[in-house]
Amino acid sequence: MRVSCAVNFLFLAATNLVSFTWGNPVEARSDVLKRAAPISPKVVIISMFAPEAEVWYGKKYHLLALNITVPGLSPLFPEVHCTASGNVCQVITGESEINAASTITAFVQSPEFNLTKSYFLVAGIAGVNPEVATLGSVTFAKYAVQVALQYEFDMRDVPDNFTTGYIPFGVTAPDDYPQTIYGTEVFEVNEALRDVAISFASGVKLNDSQASIAYRAKYSAASAYAAGAEGPSVLGCDVATSDVYFSGTRLSEAFANTTNIWTNGSGIYCTTAQEDNATLEAIMRAAQKNLTEFSRVIVMRTASDFDRPPPGVSEIQNLLYVNQGGFGPAIQNIYIAGVKVVDGILDGWNSTFSKGIAPKNYIGDIFGTLGGTPDFGLPSEYIKIGKRGGLEVEMQGNLRMRRAAEGARRAAGARGISG
Questions:
Q1: Strand 166-167 to strand 151-152: parallel, antiparallel, or no bridges (unpaired)?
Q2: What DSSP character marks residue 194?
Q3: In whole angstroms, how far apart are CA 334 and each of 285, 321, 389?
Q4: 361 within domain boundaries
Q5: Is residue 154 included in any domain, yes or no?
Q6: Where is the signal peptide (predicted)?
Q7: Quick count: other Cβ atoms within 10 Å of Cβ 135?
Q8: Are residues 251 and 264 in contact, defined by beta-carbon separation less than 8 angstroms?
Q9: Which of 123, 133, 252, 288 gives a 20 to 30 Å CA spacing to 109?
Q10: Strands 88-92 and 77-82
Q11: SS3 174
C-alpha cells in the first residue's frame, strides 16, 4: 500500500467519485466461534489496509458472513473475513513488510483454515512508473523485487561517478549484482496464472477521475512518459517492494535499474508497494510444508500515484501537495478488476482451477527453495559470496558483512552448493 498524505487528505475531503465508510462496513457481519472442519477457501483476497479491504464489502461476495479471529494477525485487523460458504476469504495484513510477513505467517499456519488449494490474490494500490502505466491502471506482476535491500548512502555522500546512493550487498558499485544474498530479493510467480488473471480483468471499464485526467495530461510533455499520459488499462508488469515510501526521479530510476539487474533484464519496474515480497516469502515458506501452493499466487496492484513528477512539477510537490486524483479510482479498480478474477476462478473451478494452472516458468525465490532453477540471479555463482575481485578479503573488517556472508553460506550448504 502507498498513498501520499496530500492525496489521502484530499480523498477524505470528498474530491473523488465515490465515498467509503472506512470504520463501519456497510455489510452485516456474523461472528462464528466454532466450526466442524477447517474452512477451505478457493480464493483468499489479501488486502493491506482498510480502504483496500472495504471496497469489497456490501457487494457480490458477502465477506463479513464469517469472521474468524486468528492469533498473530494485525492488532488493527485481527479477523479473517469469509463468505458463508467459505469459498472466498479476506485477510488484511496491515501496512509494511513486517506486518505483511507476520500476518500471512499466522494465517497460513492457523488450524482454522485449509489453504492447500487456495488461490491468493494480493489486491492493493501502489505507486506507478509513468514510463509503463498510469493512474488507475491495474497491473499484474510476474516478479516482486525487494529493491531497498541494499547498502544506502545519503546522496550528498556518494562518489561523483555514482548516480544513486544504493549499492547491492557485497559489491562496490550500484550496477553490480549483489554477492551477499538474503533470499527475499526477488520472487517469481506463475506467469501462466498471471496471464489468465489479466484475461479475466481485461475489458472492464475502469474507474477514473477528472483530477487524474488533468494530472496525467502533464506527462505528455515528455515522450518517455507517454504511457503515463494515456488512460488507465490492465497490463502485466512488475512490483517493487520497499518499506521506505520513496518518491522522485532519481530513486525511481535507481530502483528500475535494480529491478533490471536482479531479474537479468526480464523484469519491468512498474509499481511500488510496501508488502509484496514479505507476503510472498510467508506463502512460500508455507508451501515448503505443503500448507499452500505457491503456483496459485496472483499479485495485482492498482496505480494510485506517480512515483516521479511530470515536467514542470517538483519532486516534493508531486509527493506531498498536488492532487493527483488517483487514490479513489485505484481503490475502486481493485474491486472492478479483482472481482472478475475471483469470478473466473470460481466459475472455472471444476474444469480448470481445482487442479491448478501449471506454471511454465520458474516460480519461487532466488534459492530455489521450492525446487527448480531460478532464471534470475547469477546461476550458482551468486552464492560464492564476495569471491570476485578478492572482495571478501577486502571486507573482512566489516562485521555485518561477515555475518551476512556466513548466513548465505549456510543457505548454500542447505541446498548442496559448494562455495
A1: antiparallel
A2: H
A3: 27, 25, 48
A4: yes
A5: no
A6: 1-28
A7: 29
A8: no
A9: 123
A10: antiparallel
A11: coil
Cell of 79: 479477523
The secondary structure of 343-354 as a DSSP string is HHHHHTIIIIIT
Does the residue 412 lie in any domain? no
List residues bridging with 145 in a β-sheet. 186, 240
Question: Residue for cell digits 485505484?
Answer: 330
Q: Are strands 186-188 and 88-92 parallel, antiparallel or unpaired?
A: unpaired
CATH of the domain at 331: 3.40.50.1580
Q: Which residue matches cell numbers 533484464?
A: 265
Q: Are 285 and 253 in contact (CB under 8 A)?
A: no
Kindly report the CA angle at 120 between 117 and 123, in degrees rounded to 5?
165
Model pLDDT, residue 185: 96
User: Which has the closest alpha carbon to 356: 292, 301, 278?
Assistant: 292
Cite the DSSP H helix spans in 223-370. Answer: 226-229, 249-262, 276-288, 315-316, 327-347
Domain that holds residue 363: 5-149+184-379
Nearest C-alpha neighbor of 46 from the set 104, 118, 96: 104
What backbone torsions phi and psi does residue 233 show, to the nearest 5 degrees? -150, 175
CA distance 404 to 297: 29
**133 contacts: CB under 8 Å, gap ≥ 6:** 139, 227, 228, 232, 233, 235, 237, 270, 271, 303
Cβ(152)–Cβ(165) below 8 Å: yes
Number of structural domains, the chain?
A: 1
Rounded Cα distance, 73 and 33, in Å: 17
Strand partners, 297: 120
Diameter of the chain measured on Cα atoms:
66
Give per-residue pLDDT as tens, 238-254.
999 999 999 999 999 99
Q: Is residue 167 one of the residues assigned to a domain?
A: no
pLDDT digits (tens, 9 = 90+) for 232-241: 999 999 999 9
What is the rounded average pLDDT of the residues 122-143? Answer: 98
| Integer Cα distance of 59 and 314 in angstroms | 40
Phi, psi of 223 (to 5 degrees): -60, -30
Kindly give the residue spans of alpha helices, DSSP state H, lying in 20-76: 50-54
Give the pTM: 0.86
Residues 411, 80: Cα–Cα separation, whole Å: 33
